[in-house]
Structure formats: structure tokens, C-alpha cells
Amino acid sequence: MKDLWLKKNNQAANTYMDEVSRANQFTSHHNGYIKAPVKILRCIGLSAFEKLILMDLIAYMSDKTLCYPTIEMIARDVGCSSKSIERHIKELEDKKMILVSQDRKNNTYYLPNYLHYHPYLLMSEKTHEFIGSVRKQVNERELTLWVRGIVKRDEFKAFTARLQKLHEFRFPTDKFAEKEILDSYAQFLRLELAKRFPSDVNVQ
């Protein structure tokens, strides 16, 4: 019995998680699981707590389009203070990752429409795509630090704002506008990486 946790699981992770979610030998609380896109889990530009809160809200929504957990419920779920939850929820709202209504005693939360076109997800995915093309050419730890710096820069915010504006005021002629903006962002990354690692990387 002492070696119970030292044995490797031999099931595929998705199958194993399904089994874990349905286990109810000792308690039937929190059975089930959520669909959380990897794009959200690995979204560059969202903090760790923002991702946890967003996934917790998705879990509360489940098969509905809204949820209204209290701040204290989310704080217990995520493992931080209620003040921190309030701050991170405001940040998620400012980034338009969630919509918040205060019509009830508790906030009511919704997901925005066209989340798959969301600027933060598009920018994140383009950044990951770029990282994948250069990560073997430079020190990976230095690359991680460089990416963190890029996300904080005004240029990153400007590209995100351009995508957001397109998202809000789309015209029929804007069919390929996202690609043009993201391609410009990729070019910006190439130029900045060459400045940071001038002798280490040859980016096409």
C-alpha cells in the first residue's frame, strides 16, 4: 500500500482523467470535468490565476451559458484571497475574456461570443508558433524570459488592440485582416529576436 502512488499509470491521460472524474467510492462531490482548450491553458498574456479563474467559471457554467458563484466560492476553489479574485476578475473583464453582469446579488458571468477569435488567444497562438520555430536555436530559459518581456511591451498591446478593434468593428472586406495583423506581429518578433540573440539565431 505504501507504494500506491509510485506506480505509473498506463492509461492515456484523457481516459485516465475521465476515470478520475467519475470516481465516487467515497464522495460524489465534483464528479465530472470541463472542456478547457489548450489555447486557454497556455494563453500567453493571461496570468496563472486568470487562467484558473476562467476555467473555474467554465466549470460552474458546465452545460449552461452563465454562472453566478460568489467571490468566496471562487477564492476557495482557486486558492487565493477574495481580494485577489476580485482583482483578477476585473482583469479578465478588461481583457474581454469574460462578461460580467451585476444584476444579481452575486455577479453573473458569461463567455464572450467568438472566443476562438479572441485577440489574446490569437496573439498567444502566434507567439507559440514562433517559439516553436526558434526554440532549438537559442537558450530556452533566455527565450522564456524574452517572451515574458515581449508580452509586457507596448507593441504587443498595440497588436492586441488592433485585433480587438477588428473584432468589434468588422467589415465584409476584412476577411483576411487577422492574418495580416498576425503576420506583422510575427515579423516584429523576428526583428526583436534577432536583436536579442544576434549571433545565435537565424530566423527566416
TrEMBL record:
InterPro entries: WH-like_DNA-bd_sf, WH_DNA-bd_sf. It comes from the Bacteria. Pfam families: HTH_36. This is Helix-turn-helix domain-containing protein. The lineage of its organism: Bacteria, Bacillati, Bacillota, Bacilli, Bacillales.
